[in-house]
Protein backbone atom coordinates (compact mmCIF):
# COMPACT_ATOMS: atom_id res chain seq x y z
CA UNK A 1 0.00 0.00 0.00
CA UNK A 2 2.96 2.44 0.22
CA UNK A 3 3.37 5.07 -2.47
CA UNK A 4 6.13 4.27 -4.92
CA UNK A 5 7.70 6.05 -7.85
CA UNK A 6 6.55 5.71 -11.43
CA UNK A 7 9.38 3.27 -12.00
CA UNK A 8 7.37 0.69 -10.07
CA UNK A 9 4.24 0.89 -12.23
CA UNK A 10 4.35 -2.79 -13.01
CA UNK A 11 2.85 -3.29 -9.55
CA UNK A 12 -0.47 -2.41 -11.11
CA UNK A 13 -0.48 -5.73 -12.95
CA UNK A 14 -0.58 -7.46 -9.60
CA UNK A 15 -3.66 -5.61 -8.54
CA UNK A 16 -5.34 -6.38 -11.83
CA UNK A 17 -4.94 -10.09 -11.44
CA UNK A 18 -5.49 -10.73 -15.16
CA UNK A 19 -5.61 -14.47 -15.85
CA UNK A 20 -2.94 -15.76 -18.19
CA UNK A 21 -2.72 -19.19 -19.75
CA UNK A 22 0.14 -20.76 -21.68
CA UNK A 23 -1.04 -24.30 -22.36
CA UNK A 24 2.12 -25.62 -23.99
CA UNK A 25 4.25 -24.47 -21.11
CA UNK A 26 2.16 -26.02 -18.39
CA UNK A 27 1.85 -29.61 -19.51
CA UNK A 28 4.64 -30.56 -17.11
CA UNK A 29 2.52 -29.48 -14.15
CA UNK A 30 0.73 -32.79 -13.94
CA UNK A 31 1.63 -34.90 -10.92
CA UNK A 32 0.10 -37.98 -12.46
CA UNK A 33 -2.61 -39.12 -14.85
CA UNK A 34 -5.31 -38.97 -12.21
CA UNK A 35 -3.85 -37.78 -8.89
CA UNK A 36 -6.90 -38.51 -6.81
CA UNK A 37 -10.29 -36.94 -6.38
CA UNK A 38 -10.14 -33.20 -5.68
CA UNK A 39 -13.89 -32.74 -5.96
CA UNK A 40 -15.84 -31.65 -2.91
CA UNK A 41 -18.98 -33.44 -4.03
CA UNK A 42 -19.84 -36.33 -1.75
CA UNK A 43 -17.19 -35.33 0.81
CA UNK A 44 -17.57 -34.22 4.40
CA UNK A 45 -16.75 -30.53 4.16
CA UNK A 46 -14.37 -28.99 6.66
CA UNK A 47 -15.94 -25.91 8.31
CA UNK A 48 -14.45 -22.60 7.32
CA UNK A 49 -12.26 -20.98 9.98
CA UNK A 50 -14.43 -19.33 12.63
CA UNK A 51 -14.23 -15.64 11.77
CA UNK A 52 -13.29 -13.27 14.58
CA UNK A 53 -12.71 -9.65 13.59
CA UNK A 54 -9.43 -8.29 14.89
CA UNK A 55 -9.36 -5.09 16.87
CA UNK A 56 -8.29 -2.03 14.92
CA UNK A 57 -8.85 1.69 14.42
CA UNK A 58 -12.34 2.95 13.69
CA UNK A 59 -12.67 3.76 9.97
CA UNK A 60 -13.62 7.25 8.83
CA UNK A 61 -15.85 5.76 6.12
CA UNK A 62 -17.97 2.79 7.11
CA UNK A 63 -17.90 -0.57 5.31
CA UNK A 64 -21.07 -2.42 4.32
CA UNK A 65 -22.01 -6.07 4.42
CA UNK A 66 -22.55 -5.89 0.64
CA UNK A 67 -18.85 -5.26 0.00
CA UNK A 68 -18.09 -1.54 0.29
CA UNK A 69 -14.72 -1.27 2.01
CA UNK A 70 -13.84 0.58 5.18
CA UNK A 71 -12.11 3.84 4.31
CA UNK A 72 -9.44 5.74 6.20
CA UNK A 73 -8.85 9.37 5.28
CA UNK A 74 -5.97 9.65 7.75
CA UNK A 75 -3.38 7.32 9.19
CA UNK A 76 -4.04 6.01 12.71
CA UNK A 77 -2.23 8.07 15.33
CA UNK A 78 -1.66 5.06 17.58
CA UNK A 79 -0.59 1.63 16.38
CA UNK A 80 -1.25 -1.38 18.56
CA UNK A 81 0.64 -4.69 18.39
CA UNK A 82 -1.36 -7.67 17.14
CA UNK A 83 1.19 -10.40 17.91
CA UNK A 84 2.28 -11.09 21.48
CA UNK A 85 5.68 -12.68 20.79
CA UNK A 86 8.21 -13.36 18.09
CA UNK A 87 6.63 -16.20 16.08
CA UNK A 88 9.71 -17.93 14.67
CA UNK A 89 12.12 -20.50 16.09
CA UNK A 90 15.35 -19.24 14.53
CA UNK A 91 15.28 -21.74 11.68
CA UNK A 92 15.58 -21.13 7.95
CA UNK A 93 12.33 -20.91 6.00
CA UNK A 94 12.31 -21.25 2.22
CA UNK A 95 9.64 -19.16 0.50
CA UNK A 96 8.45 -18.86 -3.12
CA UNK A 97 6.10 -16.17 -4.37
CA UNK A 98 5.14 -14.28 -7.48
CA UNK A 99 6.25 -10.67 -7.77
CA UNK A 100 5.19 -7.70 -9.86
CA UNK A 101 8.04 -5.49 -8.72
CA UNK A 102 11.69 -5.27 -9.62
CA UNK A 103 14.14 -7.88 -8.23
CA UNK A 104 15.01 -7.21 -4.58
CA UNK A 105 18.49 -6.44 -3.31
CA UNK A 106 20.16 -9.47 -1.67
CA UNK A 107 19.33 -10.04 1.99
CA UNK A 108 22.77 -8.98 3.20
CA UNK A 109 22.31 -5.57 1.55
CA UNK A 110 18.58 -5.21 2.18
CA UNK A 111 17.61 -3.57 5.48
CA UNK A 112 13.89 -4.17 4.85
CA UNK A 113 14.48 -7.91 4.35
CA UNK A 114 16.56 -8.13 7.54
CA UNK A 115 14.03 -6.11 9.55
CA UNK A 116 11.13 -8.42 8.67
CA UNK A 117 13.31 -11.49 9.32
CA UNK A 118 14.16 -10.14 12.77
CA UNK A 119 10.51 -9.49 13.57
CA UNK A 120 9.52 -12.98 12.40
CA UNK A 121 12.39 -14.69 14.20
CA UNK A 122 13.56 -16.78 11.25
CA UNK A 123 15.93 -16.55 8.32
CA UNK A 124 14.02 -16.23 5.05
CA UNK A 125 15.38 -17.71 1.81
CA UNK A 126 13.12 -15.86 -0.62
CA UNK A 127 12.63 -17.06 -4.19
CA UNK A 128 10.90 -14.13 -5.90
CA UNK A 129 9.49 -15.08 -9.31
CA UNK A 130 8.48 -12.35 -11.79
CA UNK A 131 4.90 -12.72 -13.00
CA UNK A 132 6.09 -13.41 -16.56
CA UNK A 133 8.13 -16.41 -15.31
CA UNK A 134 5.75 -17.68 -12.65
CA UNK A 135 4.05 -20.38 -14.72
CA UNK A 136 7.34 -21.83 -15.92
CA UNK A 137 8.75 -21.84 -12.40
CA UNK A 138 5.64 -23.46 -10.96
CA UNK A 139 5.71 -26.12 -13.67
CA UNK A 140 9.20 -27.03 -12.49
CA UNK A 141 8.25 -26.95 -8.81
CA UNK A 142 5.12 -29.02 -9.30
CA UNK A 143 6.95 -31.69 -11.30
CA UNK A 144 9.98 -31.79 -8.98
CA UNK A 145 11.04 -33.78 -5.93
CA UNK A 146 8.58 -33.26 -3.06
CA UNK A 147 11.49 -32.99 -0.62
CA UNK A 148 12.84 -29.96 -2.52
CA UNK A 149 9.63 -27.95 -2.19
CA UNK A 150 9.90 -24.56 -0.48
CA UNK A 151 8.36 -24.44 2.99
CA UNK A 152 5.89 -21.75 1.94
CA UNK A 153 4.48 -21.29 -1.58
CA UNK A 154 2.27 -18.52 -2.91
CA UNK A 155 -0.20 -20.00 -5.43
CA UNK A 156 -1.15 -17.08 -7.65
CA UNK A 157 -4.69 -17.44 -9.01
CA UNK A 158 -4.11 -14.99 -11.86
CA UNK A 159 -2.79 -17.88 -13.95
CA UNK A 160 -4.19 -21.27 -14.87
CA UNK A 161 -2.07 -24.16 -13.61
CA UNK A 162 -3.29 -27.53 -14.91
CA UNK A 163 -3.90 -30.01 -12.07
CA UNK A 164 -3.15 -27.32 -9.52
CA UNK A 165 -5.63 -28.81 -7.05
CA UNK A 166 -4.17 -32.31 -7.47
CA UNK A 167 -0.68 -30.97 -6.79
CA UNK A 168 -1.83 -29.16 -3.66
CA UNK A 169 -3.72 -32.19 -2.39
CA UNK A 170 -0.71 -34.49 -2.79
CA UNK A 171 2.17 -32.20 -1.84
CA UNK A 172 0.86 -29.57 0.59
CA UNK A 173 0.05 -29.84 4.29
CA UNK A 174 -3.62 -30.37 5.10
CA UNK A 175 -4.34 -27.34 7.29
CA UNK A 176 -7.80 -28.46 8.35
CA UNK A 177 -6.74 -29.59 11.85
CA UNK A 178 -5.05 -26.23 12.46
CA UNK A 179 -7.54 -23.76 10.96
CA UNK A 180 -10.97 -25.29 10.51
CA UNK A 181 -13.71 -23.98 12.77
CA UNK A 182 -12.65 -22.96 16.28
CA UNK A 183 -9.06 -24.15 15.72
CA UNK A 184 -8.35 -20.86 13.94
CA UNK A 185 -8.48 -19.00 17.28
CA UNK A 186 -4.85 -20.03 17.84
CA UNK A 187 -3.97 -17.67 14.97
CA UNK A 188 -6.07 -14.53 15.59
CA UNK A 189 -4.96 -12.60 12.50
CA UNK A 190 -5.70 -15.57 10.24
CA UNK A 191 -9.09 -15.90 11.94
CA UNK A 192 -9.62 -12.23 11.05
CA UNK A 193 -9.51 -12.98 7.33
CA UNK A 194 -13.13 -12.62 6.14
CA UNK A 195 -14.98 -15.83 5.29
CA UNK A 196 -15.63 -14.68 1.71
CA UNK A 197 -11.88 -15.00 1.01
CA UNK A 198 -11.78 -18.60 2.28
CA UNK A 199 -14.92 -19.36 0.28
CA UNK A 200 -13.43 -18.07 -2.98
CA UNK A 201 -10.18 -19.92 -2.31
CA UNK A 202 -12.25 -23.07 -1.88
CA UNK A 203 -11.69 -26.50 -0.41
CA UNK A 204 -9.97 -29.42 -2.09
CA UNK A 205 -11.52 -32.81 -1.48
CA UNK A 206 -13.49 -31.22 1.35
CA UNK A 207 -10.32 -30.06 3.17
CA UNK A 208 -8.50 -26.75 3.75
CA UNK A 209 -5.05 -26.58 2.21
CA UNK A 210 -4.32 -22.86 1.97
CA UNK A 211 -4.59 -19.39 3.42
CA UNK A 212 -6.28 -16.87 1.11
CA UNK A 213 -5.13 -13.36 0.23
CA UNK A 214 -8.32 -11.33 0.68
CA UNK A 215 -9.24 -8.75 -1.96
CA UNK A 216 -12.00 -6.13 -2.46
CA UNK A 217 -15.24 -6.94 -4.25
CA UNK A 218 -14.65 -4.72 -7.33
CA UNK A 219 -12.50 -6.49 -9.90
CA UNK A 220 -11.45 -5.40 -13.38
CA UNK A 221 -12.04 -1.66 -13.60
CA UNK A 222 -11.89 0.91 -16.39
CA UNK A 223 -9.53 3.59 -15.10
CA UNK A 224 -10.14 6.95 -16.75
CA UNK A 225 -8.18 10.13 -17.21
CA UNK A 226 -11.10 11.96 -15.68
CA UNK A 227 -10.42 15.37 -17.20
CA UNK A 228 -10.08 14.04 -20.75
CA UNK A 229 -13.28 11.98 -20.52
CA UNK A 230 -15.18 14.88 -18.95
CA UNK A 231 -14.04 17.22 -21.73
CA UNK A 232 -15.24 14.64 -24.27
CA UNK A 233 -18.75 14.67 -22.79
CA UNK A 234 -18.80 11.93 -20.14
CA UNK A 235 -21.87 12.25 -17.94
CA UNK A 236 -23.63 10.40 -15.18
CA UNK A 237 -25.98 7.67 -16.28
CA UNK A 238 -24.29 7.30 -19.64
CA UNK A 239 -25.37 4.68 -22.19
CA UNK A 240 -23.37 2.49 -24.57
CA UNK A 241 -24.13 5.04 -27.31
CA UNK A 242 -22.81 7.82 -25.06
CA UNK A 243 -19.67 5.80 -24.35
CA UNK A 244 -19.05 5.33 -28.07
CA UNK A 245 -19.49 9.05 -28.74
CA UNK A 246 -17.21 10.07 -25.87
CA UNK A 247 -14.53 7.58 -26.94
CA UNK A 248 -14.58 8.93 -30.50
CA UNK A 249 -14.34 12.54 -29.33
CA UNK A 250 -11.48 11.74 -26.95
CA UNK A 251 -9.54 10.14 -29.81
CA UNK A 252 -7.61 12.48 -32.10
CA UNK A 253 -4.18 12.60 -33.66
CA UNK A 254 -1.86 10.25 -31.78
CA UNK A 255 -4.08 10.16 -28.69
CA UNK A 256 -6.60 7.42 -28.06
CA UNK A 257 -9.53 7.10 -25.68
CA UNK A 258 -9.01 3.40 -25.04
CA UNK A 259 -5.82 1.58 -24.20
CA UNK A 260 -5.44 -2.18 -23.85
CA UNK A 261 -2.62 -4.60 -23.20
CA UNK A 262 -1.78 -8.03 -24.55
CA UNK A 263 -4.11 -10.69 -23.14
CA UNK A 264 -6.75 -8.24 -21.94
CA UNK A 265 -9.05 -8.85 -24.94
CA UNK A 266 -9.33 -5.09 -25.47
CA UNK A 267 -10.54 -4.67 -21.89
CA UNK A 268 -13.28 -7.21 -22.47
CA UNK A 269 -14.10 -7.85 -18.80
CA UNK A 270 -15.38 -4.30 -18.25
CA UNK A 271 -17.49 -4.27 -21.42
CA UNK A 272 -18.93 -7.74 -20.83
CA UNK A 273 -20.04 -6.64 -17.35
CA UNK A 274 -21.59 -3.45 -18.75
CA UNK A 275 -23.60 -5.66 -21.11
CA UNK A 276 -24.57 -7.69 -18.01
CA UNK A 277 -23.08 -10.90 -19.36
CA UNK A 278 -22.08 -13.61 -16.88
CA UNK A 279 -18.70 -13.11 -15.23
CA UNK A 280 -17.22 -16.43 -16.30
CA UNK A 281 -20.05 -18.61 -15.00
CA UNK A 282 -23.59 -17.93 -13.83
CA UNK A 283 -25.83 -20.35 -11.93
CA UNK A 284 -29.62 -20.37 -12.24
CA UNK A 285 -32.19 -21.10 -9.55
CA UNK A 286 -32.15 -24.78 -10.51
CA UNK A 287 -28.40 -25.03 -9.95
CA UNK A 288 -27.46 -25.28 -13.64
CA UNK A 289 -24.28 -23.46 -14.73
CA UNK A 290 -24.12 -21.26 -17.80
CA UNK A 291 -20.92 -19.94 -19.37
CA UNK A 292 -20.39 -16.37 -20.46
CA UNK A 293 -19.19 -17.47 -23.90
CA UNK A 294 -22.56 -19.00 -24.79
CA UNK A 295 -24.51 -15.94 -23.63
CA UNK A 296 -25.83 -13.52 -26.27
CA UNK A 297 -24.94 -10.56 -24.05
CA UNK A 298 -21.30 -11.58 -24.03
CA UNK A 299 -21.29 -11.90 -27.79
CA UNK A 300 -22.91 -8.45 -28.00
CA UNK A 301 -20.08 -7.02 -25.88
CA UNK A 302 -17.52 -8.47 -28.29
CA UNK A 303 -19.40 -6.93 -31.24
CA UNK A 304 -19.55 -3.59 -29.38
CA UNK A 305 -15.79 -3.65 -28.82
CA UNK A 306 -15.23 -4.51 -32.48
CA UNK A 307 -17.07 -1.31 -33.42
CA UNK A 308 -15.00 0.73 -30.97
CA UNK A 309 -11.87 -0.70 -32.56
CA UNK A 310 -13.19 -0.10 -36.07
CA UNK A 311 -13.88 3.57 -35.40
CA UNK A 312 -10.32 4.05 -34.16
CA UNK A 313 -10.94 4.51 -30.44
CA UNK A 314 -8.36 1.88 -29.39
CA UNK A 315 -4.62 2.40 -29.45
CA UNK A 316 -3.28 0.50 -32.49
CA UNK A 317 -0.98 -1.65 -30.31
CA UNK A 318 -3.84 -2.94 -28.18
CA UNK A 319 -3.03 -6.60 -28.92
CA UNK A 320 0.71 -6.43 -28.26
CA UNK A 321 1.38 -3.81 -25.59
CA UNK A 322 2.50 -4.79 -22.09
CA UNK A 323 0.55 -3.53 -19.09
CA UNK A 324 3.63 -1.65 -17.94
CA UNK A 325 3.96 0.19 -21.27
CA UNK A 326 0.22 0.86 -21.29
CA UNK A 327 0.46 2.45 -17.84
CA UNK A 328 3.22 4.73 -19.13
CA UNK A 329 1.04 5.83 -22.05
CA UNK A 330 -1.80 6.48 -19.62
CA UNK A 331 0.39 8.74 -17.50
CA UNK A 332 1.72 10.72 -20.47
CA UNK A 333 -1.77 11.22 -21.93
CA UNK A 334 -1.40 9.03 -25.01
CA UNK A 335 -4.31 6.84 -23.87
CA UNK A 336 -7.17 8.18 -21.77
CA UNK A 337 -8.19 4.91 -20.14
CA UNK A 338 -7.09 1.38 -19.39
CA UNK A 339 -8.48 -1.74 -17.76
CA UNK A 340 -6.82 -2.82 -14.53
CA UNK A 341 -7.80 -4.31 -11.20
CA UNK A 342 -9.51 -2.08 -8.68
CA UNK A 343 -6.59 -2.51 -6.29
CA UNK A 344 -4.43 -0.64 -8.79
CA UNK A 345 -5.66 2.54 -7.11
CA UNK A 346 -2.82 2.04 -4.62
CA UNK A 347 -0.31 3.04 -7.28
CA UNK A 348 -2.62 4.78 -9.77
CA UNK A 349 -3.29 7.85 -7.59
CA UNK A 350 0.18 8.58 -6.22
CA UNK A 351 1.82 7.93 -9.59
CA UNK A 352 -0.64 10.29 -11.31
CA UNK A 353 -0.05 13.25 -9.00
CA UNK A 354 0.77 16.36 -11.02
CA UNK A 355 -0.05 14.59 -14.29
CA UNK A 356 -3.76 13.74 -14.34
CA UNK A 357 -6.74 12.86 -12.19
CA UNK A 358 -7.52 9.13 -12.28
CA UNK A 359 -11.02 7.83 -11.68
CA UNK A 360 -12.77 4.45 -11.90
CA UNK A 361 -15.52 4.57 -14.52
CA UNK A 362 -19.18 4.07 -13.72
CA UNK A 363 -20.62 1.29 -15.92
CA UNK A 364 -22.60 2.46 -18.95
CA UNK A 365 -26.08 1.07 -19.56
CA UNK A 366 -27.09 -1.12 -22.51
CA UNK A 367 -30.57 -1.10 -24.05
CA UNK A 368 -31.97 0.58 -20.95
CA UNK A 369 -30.51 -1.95 -18.50
CA UNK A 370 -27.97 -0.67 -15.95
CA UNK A 371 -24.48 -1.89 -16.63
CA UNK A 372 -22.83 -4.35 -14.28
CA UNK A 373 -19.50 -4.40 -12.48
CA UNK A 374 -16.90 -7.18 -12.54
CA UNK A 375 -16.88 -8.84 -9.12
CA UNK A 376 -13.39 -10.02 -8.28
CA UNK A 377 -12.41 -13.35 -6.87
CA UNK A 378 -12.11 -12.40 -3.21
CA UNK A 379 -8.93 -14.46 -2.94
CA UNK A 380 -6.12 -13.01 -5.09
CA UNK A 381 -4.12 -16.15 -4.37
CA UNK A 382 -3.44 -18.50 -1.51
CA UNK A 383 -0.51 -19.82 0.46
CA UNK A 384 0.30 -23.48 0.98
CA UNK A 385 2.83 -25.16 3.28
CA UNK A 386 5.17 -28.04 2.59
CA UNK A 387 4.25 -31.16 4.55
CA UNK A 388 6.06 -31.15 7.87
CA UNK A 389 5.78 -32.15 11.52
CA UNK A 390 3.15 -30.51 13.70
CA UNK A 391 5.52 -28.12 15.48
CA UNK A 392 7.01 -26.96 12.19
CA UNK A 393 3.55 -26.38 10.72
CA UNK A 394 2.43 -24.45 13.78
CA UNK A 395 5.52 -22.25 13.60
CA UNK A 396 4.96 -21.52 9.90
CA UNK A 397 1.34 -20.63 10.65
CA UNK A 398 2.53 -18.22 13.35
CA UNK A 399 4.70 -16.50 10.73
CA UNK A 400 1.73 -16.14 8.41
CA UNK A 401 -0.39 -14.93 11.31
CA UNK A 402 2.14 -12.11 11.85
CA UNK A 403 2.06 -11.17 8.15
CA UNK A 404 -1.76 -11.15 8.24
CA UNK A 405 -1.82 -8.34 10.82
CA UNK A 406 -4.59 -5.84 10.05
CA UNK A 407 -4.26 -2.19 9.04
CA UNK A 408 -3.48 0.05 11.99
CA UNK A 409 -1.06 -2.32 13.73
CA UNK A 410 2.70 -2.16 14.24
CA UNK A 411 3.16 -5.38 12.31
CA UNK A 412 1.21 -4.08 9.32
CA UNK A 413 3.32 -0.90 9.22
CA UNK A 414 6.60 -2.83 9.29
CA UNK A 415 5.56 -5.21 6.50
CA UNK A 416 4.08 -2.48 4.29
CA UNK A 417 6.51 0.38 4.93
CA UNK A 418 9.64 -0.97 6.59
CA UNK A 419 11.60 0.90 9.27
CA UNK A 420 10.76 4.45 10.24
CA UNK A 421 13.67 6.77 9.54
CA UNK A 422 15.14 4.24 7.12
CA UNK A 423 12.43 3.31 4.64
CA UNK A 424 9.89 5.99 5.48
CA UNK A 425 9.35 9.24 7.27
CA UNK A 426 6.04 10.67 8.43
CA UNK A 427 4.16 13.43 6.69
CA UNK A 428 2.31 16.21 8.48
CA UNK A 429 -0.70 13.92 8.82
CA UNK A 430 1.44 11.15 10.33
CA UNK A 431 1.19 8.93 7.26
CA UNK A 432 4.33 7.09 6.12
CA UNK A 433 6.15 8.59 3.14
CA UNK A 434 8.74 6.46 1.38
CA UNK A 435 12.38 7.53 1.45
CA UNK A 436 14.71 6.97 -1.50
CA UNK A 437 15.76 3.69 0.10
CA UNK A 438 12.11 2.78 0.67
CA UNK A 439 11.51 3.09 -3.06
CA UNK A 440 13.86 0.15 -3.74
CA UNK A 441 13.55 -1.84 -0.49
CA UNK A 442 9.83 -2.49 -0.04
CA UNK A 443 6.97 -4.93 0.04
CA UNK A 444 6.49 -4.62 -3.73
CA UNK A 445 9.96 -5.90 -4.56
CA UNK A 446 10.08 -8.36 -1.65
CA UNK A 447 6.40 -9.34 -1.49
CA UNK A 448 5.79 -10.67 2.00
CA UNK A 449 2.20 -9.52 1.45
CA UNK A 450 1.67 -12.32 -1.09
CA UNK A 451 2.23 -14.87 1.67
CA UNK A 452 -0.46 -13.55 4.02
CA UNK A 453 -2.26 -10.26 4.46
CA UNK A 454 -4.99 -8.79 6.62
CA UNK A 455 -8.36 -7.51 5.40
CA UNK A 456 -8.08 -4.84 2.73
CA UNK A 457 -9.09 -1.26 3.50
CA UNK A 458 -9.24 1.94 1.44
CA UNK A 459 -6.26 4.11 2.32
CA UNK A 460 -3.95 6.44 0.40
CA UNK A 461 -1.31 8.36 2.36
CA UNK A 462 -1.93 12.09 2.10
CA UNK A 463 -4.82 11.71 -0.37
CA UNK A 464 -8.04 11.79 1.72
CA UNK A 465 -10.16 13.16 -1.14
CA UNK A 466 -9.21 10.20 -3.33
CA UNK A 467 -10.24 7.79 -0.57
CA UNK A 468 -13.61 9.56 -0.26
CA UNK A 469 -14.12 9.41 -4.03
CA UNK A 470 -13.32 5.69 -4.15
CA UNK A 471 -15.66 4.96 -1.24
CA UNK A 472 -18.47 6.89 -2.96
CA UNK A 473 -17.81 5.01 -6.21
CA UNK A 474 -17.97 1.66 -4.40
CA UNK A 475 -21.30 2.63 -2.85
CA UNK A 476 -22.66 3.21 -6.37
CA UNK A 477 -21.26 0.12 -8.10
CA UNK A 478 -21.10 -2.65 -5.49
CA UNK A 479 -24.84 -3.36 -5.90
CA UNK A 480 -24.15 -3.90 -9.61
CA UNK A 481 -21.38 -6.48 -9.09
CA UNK A 482 -21.63 -9.68 -11.14
CA UNK A 483 -20.05 -12.62 -9.38
CA UNK A 484 -18.46 -15.64 -11.04
CA UNK A 485 -20.43 -18.55 -9.62
CA UNK A 486 -17.48 -20.93 -10.07
CA UNK A 487 -15.19 -19.17 -7.58
CA UNK A 488 -14.05 -21.66 -4.95
CA UNK A 489 -15.46 -24.65 -6.85
CA UNK A 490 -13.48 -27.48 -8.44
CA UNK A 491 -13.88 -28.92 -11.93
CA UNK A 492 -11.64 -31.75 -13.07
CA UNK A 493 -12.05 -30.68 -16.70
CA UNK A 494 -11.22 -27.07 -15.88
CA UNK A 495 -8.03 -27.95 -14.06
CA UNK A 496 -6.83 -30.27 -16.83
CA UNK A 497 -8.09 -28.49 -19.96
CA UNK A 498 -9.10 -25.01 -18.85
CA UNK A 499 -5.93 -23.31 -20.07
CA UNK A 500 -6.27 -24.74 -23.58
CA UNK A 501 -9.99 -23.99 -23.82
CA UNK A 502 -9.51 -20.46 -22.56
CA UNK A 503 -6.78 -19.87 -25.13
CA UNK A 504 -9.18 -20.97 -27.89
CA UNK A 505 -11.73 -18.36 -26.88
CA UNK A 506 -9.20 -15.63 -26.10
CA UNK A 507 -7.63 -15.97 -29.54
CA UNK A 508 -11.01 -15.86 -31.26
CA UNK A 509 -12.27 -12.87 -29.28
CA UNK A 510 -9.07 -10.95 -29.96
CA UNK A 511 -9.25 -11.74 -33.67
CA UNK A 512 -12.89 -10.64 -33.94
CA UNK A 513 -12.38 -7.35 -32.09
CA UNK A 514 -9.17 -6.64 -34.01
CA UNK A 515 -11.02 -7.14 -37.28
CA UNK A 516 -9.01 -10.18 -38.35
CA UNK A 517 -12.00 -12.51 -38.18
CA UNK A 518 -15.76 -12.11 -38.73
CA UNK A 519 -18.19 -12.38 -35.83
CA UNK A 520 -19.44 -15.67 -37.30
CA UNK A 521 -16.17 -17.30 -36.21
CA UNK A 522 -17.11 -16.57 -32.63
CA UNK A 523 -20.09 -18.96 -32.83
CA UNK A 524 -17.89 -21.73 -34.23
CA UNK A 525 -15.34 -21.22 -31.44
CA UNK A 526 -18.09 -21.48 -28.82
CA UNK A 527 -19.27 -24.74 -30.41
CA UNK A 528 -15.73 -26.15 -30.17
CA UNK A 529 -15.31 -24.87 -26.63
CA UNK A 530 -18.50 -26.58 -25.49
CA UNK A 531 -17.80 -29.90 -27.22
CA UNK A 532 -14.17 -30.07 -26.06
CA UNK A 533 -14.92 -29.57 -22.40
CA UNK A 534 -17.09 -26.53 -21.74
CA UNK A 535 -20.27 -28.54 -21.22
CA UNK A 536 -18.43 -30.98 -18.96
CA UNK A 537 -17.18 -28.08 -16.86
CA UNK A 538 -20.75 -26.81 -16.50
CA UNK A 539 -21.87 -30.17 -15.16
CA UNK A 540 -18.92 -30.49 -12.78
CA UNK A 541 -19.39 -26.99 -11.39
CA UNK A 542 -23.08 -27.69 -10.87
CA UNK A 543 -22.26 -30.84 -8.91
CA UNK A 544 -19.74 -28.93 -6.79
CA UNK A 545 -22.18 -26.09 -6.21
CA UNK A 546 -24.83 -28.50 -4.98
CA UNK A 547 -22.33 -30.06 -2.57
CA UNK A 548 -21.32 -26.67 -1.16
CA UNK A 549 -24.82 -25.31 -0.55
Q: What is the topology?
A:
Elements: H1 11-16, E1 71-72, E2 92-99, H2 111-120, E3 123-130, H3 131-143, E4 152-156, H4 164-171, H5 176-179, H6 188-191, H7 195-201, E5 211-214, E6 220-225, H8 226-231, H9 240-249, H10 268-274, E7 281-283, E8 289-291, H11 296-310, H12 323-331, E9 337-341, H13 345-352, E10 358-360, E11 373-374, E12 379-385, H14 390-403, H15 410-417, E13 424-426, E14 432-434, E15 458-459, H16 464-477, E16 481-482, H17 492-514, H18 520-548
Helix pairs in contact: 10-11, 11-17, 17-18
What does this structure look like?
The chain has two domains: 6-15 and 74-216 and 377-457, D-Maltodextrin-Binding Protein, domain 2 (3-Layer(aba) Sandwich); 220-374 and 482-548, D-Maltodextrin-Binding Protein, domain 2, CATH 3.40.190.10. The protein has 18 helices and 16 strands. Mean pLDDT is 92; it is low at 1-34. By secondary structure, it is of the alpha/beta class. The strands form six sheets. It has a five-stranded mixed β-sheet. The chain has a three-stranded antiparallel β-sheet with strand order 9-6-10. The protein has helices at residues 11-16, 111-120, 131-143, 164-171, 176-179, 188-191, 195-201, 226-231, 240-249, 268-274, 296-310, 323-331, 345-352, 390-403, 410-417, 464-477, 492-514, 520-548, and strands spanning 71-72, 92-99, 123-130, 152-156, 211-214, 220-225, 281-283, 289-291, 337-341, 358-360, 373-374, 379-385, 424-426, 432-434, 458-459, 481-482. The relative contact order is 0.20.
Amino acid sequence: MPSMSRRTLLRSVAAGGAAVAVPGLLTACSTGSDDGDVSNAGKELAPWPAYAATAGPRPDLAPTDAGVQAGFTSYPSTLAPSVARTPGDGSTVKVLTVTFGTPPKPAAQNQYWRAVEKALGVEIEFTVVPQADYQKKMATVMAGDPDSLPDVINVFTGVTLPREAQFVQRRAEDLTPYLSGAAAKDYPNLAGIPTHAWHDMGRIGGRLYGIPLERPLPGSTLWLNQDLFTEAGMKGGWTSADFTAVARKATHGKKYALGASVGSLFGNAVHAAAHHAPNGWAVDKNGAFHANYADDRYKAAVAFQAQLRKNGSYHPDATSMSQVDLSTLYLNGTVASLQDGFGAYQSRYPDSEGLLTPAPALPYSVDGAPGGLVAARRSFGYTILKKAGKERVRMLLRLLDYLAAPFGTKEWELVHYGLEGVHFTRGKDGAPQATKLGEVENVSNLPFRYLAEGPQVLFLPGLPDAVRALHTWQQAVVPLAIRNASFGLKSRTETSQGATLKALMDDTITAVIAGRAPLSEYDEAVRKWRSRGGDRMAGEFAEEHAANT
